[in-house]
Design goal:
Layout: E1 12-15, E2 18-24, E3 44-48, E4 64-73, E5 79-85, E6 88-89, E7 91-96, E8 99-105, E9 111-118, E10 121-130, E11 150-151, E12 155-160, E13 163-173, E14 184-193, E15 199-202, E16 204-207, E17 210-212, E18 216-219, E19 224-228, E20 232-233, E21 248-253, E22 258-263, E23 268-271, E24 274-277, E25 280-281, E26 284-288, H1 302-315, E27 319-321, H2 329-338, E28 341-345, H3 355-359, H4 361-378, E29 384-391, H5 398-413, E30 418-423, E31 438-441, H6 455-471, E32 479-483, H7 503-518, E33 523-528, E34 534-535, E35 548-549, H8 562-579
Parallel strand pairs: 26-27, 26-33, 27-28, 28-29, 29-30, 30-31, 31-32, 32-33
Antiparallel strand pairs: 1-12, 2-3, 2-4, 4-10, 5-9, 5-12, 6-11, 7-8, 7-10, 13-14, 14-19, 14-20, 15-18, 16-17, 16-21, 21-22, 23-24, 24-25, 34-35
Helix pairs in contact: 1-2, 4-5, 7-8
The structure holds alpha-D-galactopyranuronic acid.
Alpha-D-galactopyranuronic acid binds next to loops.
């Protein structure tokens, strides 16, 4: 996995990023013709990570493509091989040396495949990648972002020998919430015996320079097992916070393998309608951000991630909603380092789901798997404070049960995080019952309503919901506006500030909304929709001029619109008020 720090000192790892052979398979004949053994000779090259739609002449190709890469494993021994994929959009089949070794569905979450008894020397990996969305996929065909295909994030091949550390999740709590320097901790370590015989070994576990206790472990041949270390109370821990994002290295080693991760200690909670981070109330000042760029698709370069975060920090944001899917782990590393809070969700983009699809058991199960993968791969990131169950799913009767299942899974597997969903019609949305915080998407002043004639609409809508929240006995749940905004064509200006699509209109609407929200004691935060323009589809019945969603406060090349400066001024004003 590509991180901002080294994840192994013992394990032999090989990156498979770089040039791969690539061929499109629009007739879907590759499996029948066994391309995973006889790869087409006329294959071209493509760079991994990358999305083929950003290659000339391939923008609108949604379908099957094949990738092939040869690699060499050093050493002279047999070992098990862990193939690690950070994101393959959207369905993947993986072949090693001509044999199918695994598959995965759901493009935005990582997956790993372990293959036993692999020799040193030359090997060939082939992937069949299918980017089509259909009635069984999450998201469905209709989404308001461009569905790029490809091996969108990094790939690596890691040699496993003896007793190996596959994952480590730090479980912690604060017996005395008023003293965050004394957490009670235990570790859930996922181990794998990469040999054909039983192994006993001791784990060496270090949290910073603190050695955690652990007994001797025994695993049978090729057994995979989660062990939990005994709880112990630490002292002198420095909490992770926005102002002081203290991180600790978590290193788990056996005599033959190791895994290094990073953790932070923080407490997110809701009390009497307020949000508290480490016992202090906090206002969420954020933006929605897709991890997408028109020249790179979802294969978002690290350097551009840093620049996005520099711009987001310049705005005065303390949080980002990762709309609408899990984002690169290296991006989360950067948030951990900068003290920026994060809302993570899977791509259940409700506007595309029919009632039939939502009732489909396969879809519900895939949703559970995607939530489980998100919790598993992102568990240790202190920046993640919110799990989102779904986005704008229409209130069909079946949705309540879906929310109950997702809530149960996230609560059991998600650590110290708040659970919510983005709701368009909160007044009669039964799923609010499962939310720790109530999050509302609303576009008064953009969809429906006349130019500018929205000012009272917002006030009426908020007052109506305030009464409804009281009546439903949810007055202790903080309220966040998770989406609101307007489109603006960069460079289109109007002296009259009520002309839709002008930069002035977008800035005026956001200034109005942010001030209204900030001044309302019920509202504890807001995420502007959205940070940057994103490529989408003209076919959307939602006026996507240029085939972009133009509601970014910067354009797709991160050039600021008037709204960027308006939001920046307000967020810094709100921040200074909070610090008084
Ligand atoms: C919805 C949706 C966003 C985007 C937005 C818009 O709230 O969640 O993904 O489509 O509307 O721009 O209309």
């Amino acid at each position: 996995m590509k991180r901002t720090f080294n994840t192994h000192r013992k394990r032999q790892t090989l990156t498979l990023d770089g040039e791969w052979k690539f061929v499109m398979d629009p007739q879907n004949v590759g499996e029948g013709e066994k391309w995973y053994i006889d790869f087409p000779q006329d294959a071209k090259s493509i760079t991994v990570p990358g999305c083929w739609n950003t290659e000339l002449g391939k923008l609108n190709y949604m379908g099957v493509c094949w990738y092939k890469r040869d690699f060499f494993l050093c050493g002279d021994d047999l070992r098990d091989l862990l193939l690690s994929f950070e994101s393959v959009m959207t369905r993947a089949k993986v072949y090693l040396d001509g044999a199918l070794v695994g598959s995965h569905d759901g493009g935005f979450s990582p997956f790993d495949i372990i293959v036993s008894d692999i020799s040193a020397g030359d090997h060939t990996i082939v992937l069949r990648v299918d980017s089509k969305q259909d009635e069984k996929s999450i998201p469905q065909t209709r989404v308001d972002w461009f569905n790029y295909g490809g091996i969108a994030r990094s790939v690596s091949a890691e040699s496993l020998r003896g007793l190996c550390v596959i994952s480590s999740h730090l479980i912690y709590s604060f017996p005395n919430p008023s003293d965050l320097t004394l957490p009670e901790v235990s570790l859930e370590v996922e181990l794998y015996n990469a040999s054909s015989k039983s192994i006993s070994d001791t784990l060496d576990i270090r949290l910073g320079d603190i050695k955690l206790n652990c007994d001797t472990i025994q695993l049978d041949a090729r057994q995979r097992k989660i062990v939990r270390t005994p709880s112990q109370t630490l002292s002198g821990i420095k909490p992770w916070s926005c102002e002081s994002p203290t991180l600790y290295t978590l290193q788990v080693s056996t005599s033959s393998d190791d895994l290094i991760d990073r953790v932070g200690f923080r407490l997110i909670e809701v009390k009497e309608g307020k949000l508290l981070l480490n016992g202090k109330t906090i206002e969420l000042r954020g933006v929605n951000r897709h991890e997408e760029h028109p020249d790179w698709g979802f294969a978002f370069p690290q350097g551009l991630m840093r620049r996005d975060l520099d711009l987001i920090e310049e705005l005065g944001c303390n949080t980002i909603r990762g709309s609408h899917y899990p984002q690169s782990k290296i991006f989360l590393d950067m948030l951990d380092e900068r003290g920026i809070l994060f809302w993570s969700e899977i791509p259940i983009w409700g506007g595309g789901f029919s009632e039939k699809a939502l009732q489909d058991e396969d879809i519900v199960e895939l949703g559970l798997t995607m939530h489980k993968e998100m919790c598993y791969y992102y568990y240790n990131h202190p920046s993640i404070i919110i799990w989102g169950m779904h986005n704008e799913v229409y209130q069909y009767p079946c949705v309540y049960e879906i929310s109950r299942k997702y809530h149960e899974l996230l609560r059991a597997n998600g650590g110290n995080r708040l659970i919510t969903h983005a709701s368009m019609f909160p007044n009669d949305d039964p799923s609010l019952e499962f939310d720790d915080i109530i999050c509302i998407n609303h576009y008064k002043g953009w969809y429906g309503g006349g130019n500018g004639g929205y000012l009272n609409d917002w006030k009426n809508m908020i007052d109506e919901f305030r009464a409804c929240r009281e009546k439903r006995g949810m007055a202790d749940k903080p309220v966040i506006f998770s989406e609101f905004g307007a489109a603006a064509l960069a460079g289109f200006h109007s002296h009259f500030d009520s002309v839709k699509w002008s930069e002035e209109y977008q800035a005026q609407l956001l200034k109005y909304c942010l001030t209204l929200f900030h001044d309302d004691p019920m509202i504890q935060g807001f995420y502007v929709w959205q940070f940057a323009n994103i490529r989408t589809y003209a076919e959307m019945d939602l006026n996507r001029v240029r085939c972009f969603n133009n509601k970014g406060i910067v354009d797709e090349y991160r050039n600021p619109k008037s709204a960027f400066f308006a939001v920046r001024e307000l967020y810094h004003k709100f921040k200074s008020e909070e610090q008084k």
